[in-house]
Automatic annotation (TrEMBL), chain A:
<dbReference type="InterPro" id="IPR039426">
    <property type="entry name" value="TonB-dep_rcpt-like"/>
</dbReference>
<feature type="signal peptide">
    <location>
        <begin position="1"/>
        <end position="25"/>
    </location>
</feature>
<feature type="domain" description="TonB-dependent receptor plug">
    <location>
        <begin position="120"/>
        <end position="228"/>
    </location>
</feature>
<comment type="similarity">
    <text>Belongs to the TonB-dependent receptor family.</text>
</comment>
<keyword id="KW-0472">Membrane</keyword>
<dbReference type="InterPro" id="IPR036942">
    <property type="entry name" value="Beta-barrel_TonB_sf"/>
</dbReference>
<dbReference type="InterPro" id="IPR008969">
    <property type="entry name" value="CarboxyPept-like_regulatory"/>
</dbReference>
<keyword id="KW-0998">Cell outer membrane</keyword>
<keyword id="KW-0813">Transport</keyword>
TrEMBL record, chain B:
<comment type="similarity">
    <text>Belongs to the SusD family.</text>
</comment>
<keyword id="KW-0998">Cell outer membrane</keyword>
<keyword id="KW-0472">Membrane</keyword>
<dbReference type="InterPro" id="IPR011990">
    <property type="entry name" value="TPR-like_helical_dom_sf"/>
</dbReference>
<dbReference type="Pfam" id="PF07980">
    <property type="entry name" value="SusD_RagB"/>
</dbReference>
<dbReference type="Pfam" id="PF14322">
    <property type="entry name" value="SusD-like_3"/>
</dbReference>
<feature type="domain" description="SusD-like N-terminal">
    <location>
        <begin position="91"/>
        <end position="222"/>
    </location>
</feature>
<dbReference type="InterPro" id="IPR012944">
    <property type="entry name" value="SusD_RagB_dom"/>
</dbReference>
<dbReference type="GO" id="GO:0009279">
    <property type="term" value="C:cell outer membrane"/>
</dbReference>
Length: 989, 497
């Protein structure tokens, strides 16, 4: 008891002494204003006083003030994320003007590396780090568009510009055939799949960190092999309240069209080719123009927040509204979020709550329509439709030609089919961090994410779609629910021992993801009033197998992980991590996987022998090795033998009645497990001439073993079903990456920085066979695209193709190696095929210069890829004269004179090289010092996809490069737009 | 402070202990072990085999396209789908017809895969039913179906991999001689047919009863010379006679406006195959249990709309030289459409081209033997398919008698068929008479290729088709199968790659 009293009174006495001492001491006031490179105030910058260990932050006007203890000068360190640290001496009773210079490497100081952060200078692995200022501006609907071209080895592949459809991303190429290549997405600590990005408002991103090599991603164990994207959203800053509004509106246009036969050209050719006159309906219709229009994309974000006394918050509402360039497609997205942080227990406990809710409403252009075997999206039907076909019959109904098998009128589809997807997303998380004792801290983190998606589809008779006509309209709905929970508990310890620094973390993590939903379909409606909203109005007699279905499954993941960072004298760095993952989707024989990693770095510039040289301002060598896994592609319940409704004959007739028939739908594979990827990375970071020239060069080599593949097996022995997901095969990836930035001009008013990055990557299939259930299986020479294959010793998607030689007198295409009677060896291993290259790009590069002059700023992104071939399937399909009677063809088809072909020859194989003028952005900060309520105002103009330099004959050589079996093929896409946008950013006082 | 630390570690440890179970939970399917071992599972195993027969697109005996029926029909002289000069129709069918199909043809691959899938199911059913000590008739039914599938395999492909135990690795076994498989089929059939039910129709509609079992035995004996070099006409006759003892009669053929094509004869190809004549049928309900496309595939668009309510596919035509053999009095000629038709179109009798540039849109004779019955839609109708019927038995009895040198004994069998068709009797019929009569009676029912081979007609030139080489009597083994199992040998005459 005594002690307590002593403590209590002691504190009071101490407080009084302090109060008196400050009252009696001579006060000196230090004031200052911190501004950015454009002389705009920087609220929230930290001022640290070396002499007294005091700290404060700037207010909304960038102003701070400190009370000194009778000093006349103070040495202060000013820090702000994204800017170089400023060390300076300030004088009492003067207002210091402190201008911070943006970090010359365009990198934030702190890098999020998963379950923790490290200083950029202390990194040992390969991590690309992008701050808000580095992200692509303009009309952006998905965070991936913001990083296109910005990081070496991180390739964003956008096929078409359909509203609501996300681009794909590949980090260091393709590491898996069937196991999935999408990276893990981590948003403010919550792990998710790519669709999670949908929930992140692009303008609310503070930084994006991309973990590239295995030594960095191994901490994510069985989800780390494909790389990790870590997004940190903006948080409330200390100081006064801020209110910020961002707006961007764009006009989206179609830059290029295919040159097809006009009505008169078609008529002339039809006569020449002997097409029956009944096929010519004498009209003149430009189907493509009819189905397309100019699109508009709007983007609004209102954000506000403040912070004081251990509490801060940020709230925002974002709205994205997009009208697609194809009739009937549009997209609306709204996201609201609040992040709040409260400190307690003498600032030892930090609680952070994050709530985010989003709504996505999309109308997609229907797919799965039309009679073309090679493509089923609506816009591609416009390529096929004959220009001589009218849009309407004389009675005003949509035209169809009953003499063409399953004829569909693309305009009727675009005008009458509903294809609506509504998605609601909600996630919340709570983080509690507690400083326990001298560098030891503990944390708890829990998150819960829910996604509810409802799909509605209705095709009326007027759509001309065969099934809709047959059944008087058809409708279906899907309800899909995702429920993902994650909880982790961590302990971490940070301490300096002399020149040594140690930072260790141990984490236990539990995740459960549950998926459930249902599907219902109905046909035969009296009218089109209720569409998919009243399925009970359909006709019972028209019900079919599969009209009703539902599902539920879940995957659980239990993990134990740890990481130790050790450094000595800020010169030598060592990181080691280990993770054990147990997952319910692994087979019974492999419930747990283990993923170790180690990496090291040497900051050569810190060595004493470097002290006297002036060339290198920074030099760091890094190297690491790690083992990661990929379990993304493992199907839920994929390892056990299952019975379900028979796929081919869900209903059969047996014993005098119709019965439901059950059959094996999956083989057992207790050996099923994660793909295992081991990777070695070597990197060099450098800064020359006082960091005027900075850059990074990295090389890596990786091997994926236990490669997942859906093997076709003979139904025999243990195999009850003709395919089995199994781990056999090996894949190798090698790559070289470089990024460079050179500050050509760096003065008070003008800056010009030339920056760029590039990557070379090559994969090779080493092995494609293995023993499954005691039976040798081989997948060598598996088709992987049009005339592209998986072949041992060759890259993924190697074209083994026939050499086009011409056309014979009957209009049949000829090719090298045919027998005299025209017959030929059609097998994959046919000797008359030759190796014509690969379907995935060998190199990607980007050039990203930026320029500022006083209040004006400009930036560009040029990016390109190449070394690959694209199979122009669309050109092939629109060039066969034999099809003229039922469809339109390209103008170029006439000269080739090819009526028909037994093969897809190299006549249609084209170089995939391109250079795209991706982005040009011009901005101007309007001087607002005299405006009462506005503290900053910026206007900008951005153009995207402004030019495409390529020899490719189709619309755009940037086709699917996701690494899947459709990679490298062009069979018609939703058009890729060129956009022109105007933006406004205003910050209120 | 230390207490807090210890407490924290304790909490962490406790939480970590609580969630370490990672076993899979199945919510929406049946784990195989929990299903197959039950009596319901054993019955289901038998139903799976039966369901394989009707199958669906690309994996069936008949009804939908691109499998056994197409392979065995378009390679004969009875029907063809020409490429159209309007761009319609791929070339597979015309290539099969003209003996110019590539070695690797989807239809051939599908047929092979369908049959081996069915054999696996049958092996599985035999094993499961035996393990469950099921009624012997059910085990026999599974075995007889397996025999039937092997009979269809050796008929099309000759020497093929043979196994009856699903633990066999088919990738490592060699082909078994056609004659050896023939012997197995005969032996197993003889041991099992008498165990089968004698019930006709009802719960046995669509299933192998005793009469269907003897029908298969008769068919196997009938073609024994093709399979083994040694004919077994007497045994074929005996087996056919056994089928006839099941009490079948020919379905009456009388003019009736309510019947398809205006005659009760065509009820044989309607919604349900009548029990009087049908020995084995496929039960079909459009889109629920497969579907029957044979009429909609043939009719042109407008004619289809007029006759069956949906646009026809403008596909199958009957070669004019085949059509010309029919007598005008023959009620079976009513199945053909030529000249002006409903829907305001006219079918020409002849076609100008099969492949390049292809036939004109309305060229060629069409077929409505399976005149579509409801429920039907744009992808077919609900006509059941007669795999075997009594008319075939009569023709086999007639053929065996002629083959055995007893032409006079053949006459009454043939006479029944001809009388029903509205034709006169043929005294002392020849083999050609039998062959032609089979062509008239059984066209569009999947028998033609086998008949042409057995009667030595298969390789003769006809219409657009030039003479074939001996090796063409067998189809090539699919390339994919050869790749997987290097021990298999391609049938002679085809590129081995």
């Amino acid at each position: 008891m005594k002690k307590v009293y002593l403590f209590k009174y002691g504190l009071t006495v101490l407080f009084l002494i302090c109060a008196f001492s400050s009252a009696f001491a001579q006060k000196s006031v230090f004031k200052g204003k911190v501004v950015d490179e454009l002389n705009q105030p920087l609220p929230g910058a930290t001022i640290h006083v070396k002499e007294t260990d005091q700290s404060t932050v700037t207010d909304a006007n960038g102003v701070f003030s400190l009370v000194g203890n009778n000093q006349s000068v103070l040495t202060v360190q000013v820090t702000f994320i994204g800017y170089d640290v400023a060390n300076l001496v300030i004088k009492a009773n003067e207002t210091a003007a402190i201008k911070l210079v943006p970090n010359s490497k365009s990198l934030t100081e702190v890098v999020v590396v998963g379950y923790g952060t490290v200083k950029k200078t202390d990194l040992t692995g390969s991590v690309a780090n992008l701050g808000a200022k580095d992200l692509n501006p303009g009309s952006v609907t998905n965070p991936l568009q913001q990083i296109a071209g910005k990081a070496a080895g991180v390739n964003i592949n956008e096929v078409g510009s359909e509203p609501g459809v996300a681009p794909s991303i590949r980090i260091r190429g393709i590491t898996s055939l069937s196991g999935g290549n999408d990276p893990l997405v981590v948003v403010d600590g919550v792990q998710g799949n790519m669709e999670f990005l949908n929930q992140v408002p692009p303008s609310e991103i503070a930084s994006i960190d991309i973990l590239k090599d295995a030594s960095a991603t191994a901490i994510y164990g069985s989800r780390g092999a494909t790389g990790v994207i870590i997004i940190t959203t903006k948080k409330g800053a200390a100081g006064k309240a801020t209110v910020e509004y961002n707006e961007n509106t764009s006009l989206d246009v179609i830059p290029k069209q295919l040159q097809e036969l006009t009505a008169s050209q078609w008529t002339k050719q039809a006569e020449l080719q002997g097409v029956d006159v009944s096929a010519n309906h004498g009209s003149n219709t430009d189907w493509y123009n009819l189905l397309t229009r100019n699109g508009v994309t709007q983007n609004h974000t209102l954000a506000f927040g403040s912070g004081s006394n251990g509490f801060n918050y940020r709230a925002s509402v974002s709205a994205i509204n997009q009208t697609g360039v194809v009739l009937g497609s549009n997209y609306k997205k709204y996201i609201a979020r609040i992040v709040a942080t409260q400190k307690a227990l003498d600032d030892k406990l930090t609680l952070t709550m994050n709530v985010n809710t989003g709504v996505n409403d999309a109308n997609y252009s229907p797919i799965g329509v039309g009679n073309a075997a090679f493509t089923s999206n609506t816009i591609s039907q416009a390529y096929i439709a004959r220009p001589t076909d009218p849009v309407y019959n004389t009675d005003g109904t949509y035209f169809t030609d009953p003499n063409v098998f399953h004829y569909t009128n693309p305009y009727a589809i675009a005008k009458t089919v509903s294809n609506v997807v509504n998605q609601d997303e909600l996630f919340g998380s709570l983080r509690a961090d507690l400083d326990i004792y001298k560098g030891l801290s503990a944390g708890w983190f829990g998150s819960w994410r829910k996604v509810n998606q409802n799909t509605g589809y209705y095709a009326p008779v007027a759509s001309t779609i065969t099934d809709a006509v047959t059944y008087n309209g058809q409708a279906h709905i899907n309800n899909d629910h995702t429920d993902e929970k994650l909880m982790d508990i961590n302990l971490s310890y940070k301490r300096d021992f002399g020149l040594s620094h140690i930072d260790a973390t141990a984490v236990y993590e539990y995740q459960i993801q549950t998926y459930f939903g249902s599907y219902s379909a109905a046909r035969g409606f009296a009218n089109d009033i209720a569409t998919y909203n009243g399925l009970q109005l359909g006709t019972l007699a028209s019900a079919q197998n599969g009209d009703v279905s539902s599902y539920k499954n879940d995957r659980k993941l239990v993990s134990y992980l740890g990481r130790v960072n050790y450094s000595y004298n800020n010169r030598y760095y060592l990181t080691a991590s280990f993770r054990a993952d147990g997952s319910s989707v692994f087979g019974a024989n492999h419930h747990f996987g283990y993923f170790p990693s180690a990496s090291a770095a040497w900051r050569i510039d810190q060595e004493s022998f470097m002290a006297n040289q002036k060339v290198f301002s920074m030099l760091k060598l890094r190297g690491g090795y790690g083992v990661t896994g990929n379990q993304q592609g493992l199907p839920v319940q994929g390892s056990i033998s299952l019975y379900g409704l028979s796929t081919n004959n869900p209903t059969t007739y047996f014993g005098g009645q119709q019965i439901s028939l059950y059959d094996y739908i999956q083989n057992a594979n207790p050996d099923l497990r994660w793909e295992s990827r081991s990777e070695t990375n070597l990197g060099l970071d450098f800064g020359l001439f006082n960091d005027r020239l900075t850059g990074t060069v990295e090389a890596y080599t990786s091997k994926t073993t236990n490669l997942l593949y859906n093997y076709n097996v003979n139904i025999s022995g243990p195999f009850k079903v003709n395919h089995i997901f199994a781990n056999a095969g090996t894949l190798q990836n090698k790559g070289l990456e470089a990024s460079l930035s050179y500050a050509v001009i760096k003065t008070k008013d003008v800056s010009l920085t030339l920056a760029g990055n590039g990557s070379l990557m090559q994969n090779k299939v080493l092995k494609l066979s293995g023993v499954i259930d005691g039976i040798q299986q081989s997948t060598n020479y598996q088709p992987w695209g049009t005339n592209a294959w998986l072949v041992e010793g060759q890259p993924i998607g190697t074209y083994l193709i026939y050499k086009h030689t011409g056309v014979n007198s009957n209009g049949v295409e000829t090719f090298a190696g045919q027998n005299a009677d025209g017959s030929f060896d059609a097998t994959a291993q046919s000797k008359i095929r030759y190796n014509a290259g690969q379907s995935l790009p060998k190199y990607n590069y980007a050039f990203t210069p930026s320029f500022t002059y006083k209040n004006f700023d400009a930036s560009m992104v040029w990016r390109g890829a190449g070394g690959n071939k694209v199979f122009n399937g669309l050109r092939s399909k629109l060039s066969m004269l034999e099809n003229l009677g039922k469809q339109n063809l390209l103008q170029s088809a006439i000269a080739t004179g090819i009526h028909s072909s037994a093969v897809q020859s190299d006549e249609w194989l084209e170089s995939g090289n391109y250079l795209r003028f991706q982005n040009l952005s011009l901005g101007y900060r309007i001087n607002v010092t005299n405006i009462k309520f506005i503290s900053a105002l910026r206007v900008s103009l951005t153009g995207q996809n402004l030019a495409l330099i390529t020899k490719y004959k189709g619309l755009d050589p940037e086709v699917d490069a996701s690494g899947g079996s459709s990679s490298g093929g062009d069979y018609g896409i939703y058009p890729r737009t060129r956009t022109f946008s105007a933006g406004l950013n205003v910050i209120l006082k | 402070m230390k207490k807090l630390l210890i407490f924290s570690v304790f909490i962490v440890g406790l939480a970590a202990q609580s969630c370490t179970k990672v076993n899979e939970t199945v919510y929406d399917k049946y784990p195989a072990a929990a299903f197959a071992a039950t009596p319901k599972g054993a019955d289901n195993a038998l139903a799976i085999v039966v369901a394989k027969i009707t199958g669906t697109w690309g994996s069936n005996y008949a009804g939908r396209d691109n499998c056994w029926y197409d392979l065995n029909s378009f390679s004969s002289d009875e029907q063809v789908i020409p490429h159209r000069n309007t761009g319609d129709w791929q070339l597979d069918f015309a290539q099969l017809y003209t003996r110019t199909a590539p070695t690797s043809l989807g239809i051939t691959n599908n047929t092979w895969n369908w049959l081996y899938g069915a054999i696996y199911s049958a092996n599985d059913a035999v094993a499961q039913l035996t393990a469950a000590k099921a009624d012997p008739s059910k085990i026999a039914e599974a075995k007889v179906m397996r025999d039937w599938f092997y009979y269809l395999l050796i008929d099309d492909f000759g020497d093929v991999p043979f196994y009856t135990d699903n633990n066999t690795d088919p990738n490592t076994i060699q082909q078994t001689k056609r004659a050896d498989i023939y012997n197995f089929i005969v032996t197993e059939l003889k041991a099992n047919v008498d165990l089968l039910s004698e019930t006709k129709g009802g719960v046995y509609y669509g299933r192998f009863n005793k009469w269907a079992g003897y029908m298969v035995l008769a068919k196997v004996y009938l073609n024994a010379e093709v399979y083994t070099g040694t004919p077994h006409w007497a045994e074929a006759l005996a087996a056919a006679t056994k089928v006839a003892s099941g009490g079948f009669t020919l379905h009456p053929a009388t003019a009736n406006t309510a019947s398809p094509n205006g005659n009760t004869y065509y009820e044989l190809f309607g919604n349900t195959c009548p029990d009087d004549e049908t020995i084995l049928a496929e039960y079909i309900t459009e889109n629920i249990i497969s579907g029957n496309i044979y009429t909609i595939r043939s009719l042109n668009s407008a004619n289809g709309t007029a006759l069956i309510g949906f646009n026809g596919w403008n596909g199958t035509v009957i070669p004019s030289e085949y059509y010309d053999k029919f007598d005008d009095k023959d009620i079976r000629k009513k199945q053909f459409l030529v000249g002006p038709q409903a829907g305001n179109i006219t079918y020409t009798k002849d076609i100008s081209s099969l492949i390049d540039p292809g036939a004109g849109p309305n060229e060629g004779i069409r077929n409505t033997k399976f005149l579509t019955v409801a429920p039907n839609d744009a992808s077919g109708g609900s006509n059941d398919f007669p795999i075997y019927r009594y008319a075939d038995v009569l023709l086999m009895q007639a053929e065996c008698n002629v083959r055995l040198g007893n032409s006079a004994a053949a006459e009454p069998f043939l006479k029944q068929i001809r009388t029903r068709a509205g034709l006169g009797d043929i005294a002392n019929p020849t083999l050609d008479d039998i062959y032609n009569e089979r062509g008239f009676e059984l066209n569009m029912e999947g028998h033609r290729r086998q008949d042409m081979i057995r009667f030595g007609k298969y390789l003769l030139p006809h219409g657009f088709v030039s003479a074939g080489a001996e090796y063409m009597k067998l189809f090539p083994i699919p390339a994919a199968v050869l790749t997987v199992n290097p021990k298999l040998k391609q049938n002679p005459g085809y590129p081995t790659n």
